């Protein structure tokens, strides 16, 4: 669209669940508005479009992950597994788009590179890779929390002659198991993605070897996936209202709530009984259903970690390997806990080798593979980087921002709104100097059960857009005081949580990204229930904290 044409009323970037949900609500409630979605991929789905690596699946309960507003689809759609695989989830998202005819508004294969605020016209001008311009009055970022992949900076990596890729850029032409036959595979990274990939690759009997490069051992616990029978699906459908109410009442948006008792207030038998019960059940209860002080009290966390360490020892035959797989530098649950289906048993396979990068870090890459500090060359045909993402702010960094007074959003520049990746927001929905820009799953929103957070944020954004429409406002921006107050509140909520004392994407640390070595508070750590109440109070008070014009 050329710049002389009428601007869009709303431009959305990203056609993952956030973008789809926001688009749907705007189409429903502001039907006369012109709206466009720009998406880098060639299909909808976001996370579930990009992450096609083998073994990719939910490790949170699928039934609590759906869009709760589409009551009809809830009744129509039959899930086949308690924790759905990536293809099934992508099919669900595609179905939502087709049912609501959302694809008509989405432009695929387009990556936005820059954003310029035009104060006199009160519009944003976005430019894509090809230099095409998109003018819009309002803009909703649906860029995703984990959408900007990061690769390890290993000296000489460009010399490696084998295949190398990030898990979220899995080559469409690479089939497992066929293309893995007789191959020496390497995986760097043991987060949720690495754990799923390693488990799946280790099951391919025809591989020559699988070498896991582990820097930080990660706690993980059994997923215990099951098929959903037609009878169970029928029952689930009859309980959806109750199920979403349970999610709404939970601080994390999941079906699980912590046991209100404290770890040391019960006998050892009672403690073990709860832990064993949770361990034997499917899903996140073993992370979220534990005693209420597990992630705030060091003794409680140590006791639970010891319980989990013993489980690993039992499952891994070689005690030296088991010892390396048990985290020593952080307790259970202080990073996002991956749920697995045979991860620890993978190390009982003689073809699977563990390289402990804490003892022998990477020295360099060669044509043939990776050399560690003990001088050993690990020869590889395929190197899979499960090395995570520039989380929360990464996708924002990939765009060059010129906000009000030409301010950058995020860069090394001290004038940047989020200088040094230190995010500041109002309700996690807006930030200063970026007028008319709203965020779904922006920094300072609760993440927890992601679709529950998305639905709420999309609703708040819609309320704000309608407020502008109803009052004839073409300009909205939070005040500095409101941003400072909200940011201070977000920091205050994070106090006392042991999770915030550990390096991980949850605390904004990524060793592969300049300026992200220090921990920060980039997500809302309080209860999602309280967060929603605060948003509602703000709305009832006439959106106090926002300037409209
Ligand atoms: P994560 O959880 O950020 O894990 C990334 C992994 O990659 C982690 O084990 C890292 O080790 C490792 N890593 C990253 N960079 C390097 C370098 N340079 N060298 C060696 N190892 C490295 O990402 P995931 O994709 O697994 O999961 C992200 C979320 O997606 C997950 O939490 C779920 O919510 C779904 P480190 O721990 O930094 O030492």
From TrEMBL:
Keywords: FAD, Flavoprotein, NADP, Oxidoreductase. It comes from the Eukaryota. This is Uncharacterized protein. It comes from Paecilomyces lecythidis.
